[in-house]
Amino acid sequence: MAAVSVAAEWQQLYDRYYRKPELYQLRWNHVDLSRNKVACAPFGGPIAAIRDDSKIVQLRSESALRKLRIFTSAGAQISETVWKNPGGRLIGMSWTEDQTLICITQDGTVYRYNLHAQLIEPNLSIGKECFENSVVECVFWGNGVVCVNETFQVFCISDFKNPRAVRMAETGIEDFPLCVAVIEPQYTMSGNVEVLLGVGDHVLLVEEDGVQQVGAGVGPLQKMVVSRNGRYLASFTHDGQLLVMSTDFSNIIFEYNCESALPPEQLSWCGMDSVLLYWDDVLLMVGPFGEPVRYLYDEPIILIPECDGVRILSNTSMEFLQRVPDSTVSIFRIGSTQPAALLYDALDHFDRRSAKADENLRLIRSSLPEVVEACIDAAGHEFDISRQQTLLRAASYGQAFCSHFQRDRIQEMSKTLRVLNAVRNQEIGVPLSIQQYKLLTPSVLIGRLINAHQHLVALRISEYLGLNQEVVIMHWACSKITASLAIPDVSLLEILLDKLKLCKRISYATVAAHADKTGRRKLAAMLIEHEPRSSKQVPLLLSIGEEDTALTKAIECGDTDLVYLVLFHIWQKRPSLEFFGTIQARPLGRDLFISYARCYKHEFLKDFFLSTDQLQEVAFLLWKESWEVAKNPMASKGSPLHGPRIKLIEKAQSLFSETKEHVFESRAADEHAKLLRMQHELEVTTKQAIFVDSSISDTIRTCIVLGNHRAAVKVKTEFKRNDGIGLKFLLWRQSGIGMPWKSFRRRKAHQWVIDHLWRHALMRMKEAYARIGMAKEAADAASQAKDGELFGRLKLTTFAQNAAASSIFDTLRDRLSFQGVS
């Protein structure tokens, strides 16, 4: 009997069955579809309605102001707003894939609204041509629209996510087209939108770069609509024929005489199996075979195409017309003896404790896996919860006798149905079928619930399906802040934290940023304290004016990049003295600032050191700047730039002299300035740029080489140098004059210099003797140098093949008793 009652609701179209269950009794009041422009979103989406200003209607108890109202599919009002937009009459209205409401007025202005009737700025424009020549018709699809203006020009916006109006090729027509249809870009060979215009007895195919005539002789066409897959075109001709043909017009699939030349108000595909035509009081469903099915209505309706059927909206109800799935037909068709029907019947017998249950199971045992799958599939396509449960029980009953079946299929379907039943609830109003749910995906469904402020359902579904709950909670928190202007910050913080703590890795910074954006800076500061990630915490603290806290947090986390970010922000925002006081109390921040300023901001760093009484640091900077002056290409030897350089060094010496701890640096700077003056004078007098930046010894040596002994003595006296013997030795060595070794050996002064030079000379002599084969002389030189390592190296390498030389080295080794030479 249950099967009979189910099948009794079906209508047969040739060999296929269709059903039209009622989804909701609508909750709205005083909404007449005949008086309003209505836009319905697919996938069980919202409904937008506004009074049609192209009709003369009687105002009952409503306001004269037009209101844009948005409802759920169950008729519950979500939001409303007064329509005050200029631009002339409203021509078209539709929802995009992300549930943004698009409204196009006569002058080509595009207004966008979100689900809560809030205008999204900025407004868009289709173009100057539409402003000058009004828009007459709009055809929407997915995320795009095609508009035709009074001069028969065609314009297209292919994606509202990247809105750019494109003018299509000139049509060359002189009368307004009878009908317009669009083939979406993903179904065309070119990948661009193709617009079909019904003109005369043919159709114009309009693209961006050209127009071609197709379908000659099929018209005139009064209505056209393209199937969801872009392969077929359903059209209504001037003589009452319904033609279904391929979109390339190569062949006609089928035709049907509707017995009325009056074009239908609406023409729509029902899945891919049939076409619906609606006149004032009748809905006609036509298939490729068999007699059409008629549904009578005594109130206006709107057809909402879906991927697996059509939702039918009337003034009082929402229905869903769909083809009955094959699995459901096999179970509930009247008189069915299919294995799935026998399993369903076996469950009924089992519940009544009848032996007939076992008999049915024996009949279908060979096909039991397929039968169980059919029951699961039929349960998924049902809207009635009790019928879902019965079908799943039948599947579970059959699975108990089936060893070769995927055990988690029933669990998966149960999960899916729980989600679908939750969103189908009249309070939520999203009547998704299982096919729509799979095509939409759970994450998109959760996003839509969030946008509709159904946060609790979205959170429970996310938790149930194991999806990320953070997005739901963050959106709830931001919405709560926006809607709770009257709640004090402390109280609201407790409410928010109670929910935010549900997710361990949630971004408090994002919620705090929203609080700051809504003008609740104190709440934002309290929220940001709970953000564990400094990389998100510090920038937000800066944006809300908490620079000191941001600097403290950045220093605590030890991230130098964050510290520099805060330092630069404070640097630009605060006066210098206040900035210096801020960083002086924080050693890490101070040191990082000094490191940066030493490289790029000397003047600012000097101000900092002066403000903190660090005169010696200023002196060091001045001294460093003097060397930077020397590196200047313009500061050539003998240049007047040495005047500023000396002044810098003198300033440094003056600052050093003010501190007792830097006596050495003060004297060094004083002598450096004196030396630079003398070197500059020498370059001027000798006209040779060879003195500046050389050492005192090099300056004296250069003077002696140039024969300017008086200048050398002056430099030596000025700087009290007592290394005359060493200098003379260097000069003799430089000039190539024979070196008086014995006189140097008799002198005790500068003994270490003499010993070193004497040893160096002996080594040079040894190498020379060795190169010309004089073993005895080389050995004598090595012995005088008292270098055992050198002695051994000569014996083992240079004279290894000379027996006489080796004998000489052995004799000297025994005499001198060198260690480590063998």
Automatic annotation (TrEMBL):
Annotated Vps16 N-terminal domain residues: 8-408
Keyword set, alphabetical order: Membrane, Vacuole
Domain Vps16 C-terminal: 506-721
InterPro entries: VPS16, Vps16_C, Vps16_C_sf, Vps16_N, WD40_repeat_dom_sf
GO MF, one example: actin binding
GO annotation (BP), single: vacuole fusion, non-autophagic
Cell compartments where the protein resides: Vacuole membrane
Annotated TM spans: none
Gene Ontology CC terms: endosome; HOPS complex; lysosomal membrane
Membrane topology (UniProt): Peripheral membrane protein
Top-rank lineage group of the source organism: Eukaryota
Pfam families the record matches: Vps16_C, Vps16_N
Family, per entry: Belongs to the VPS16 family.
Protein purpose: Required for vacuole biogenesis and vacuole enlargment in dividing and expanding cells. Involved in the docking or fusion of prevacuolar vesicles.
Name of protein: Protein VACUOLELESS1
Organism in which the protein naturally occurs: Escallonia herrerae
